[in-house]
Amino acid sequence: MNVGIVGLGHLGRIHLKLLVEIPDFKVKAIYDIDKNVMDKMSYQNDIMLCDTYDELLQLCDVVLIITPTPTHFELASKAIKSGKHVFIEKPATDNPDDTKTLSSLAKEAGVIVQVGHVERFNPAYTAAKAFINNPLHIEIERLACYNERGTDVSVVLDLMIHDIDLLLNTIKSKIKKIYATGSSIVSKTADVAFARIEFENGCVANLKANRIALTNVRKMSVFQKNTFIDIDLLNKITTVREIKAVTSTSSINKGIVLESSNPSQNFEIIQNQPIINPINAIKTELECFYKSITSDFPLAVSLSDAEIALKVVSEIELQINPQIRK
Question: 164 with 238: CB under 8 angstroms?
Answer without folding.
Answer: no
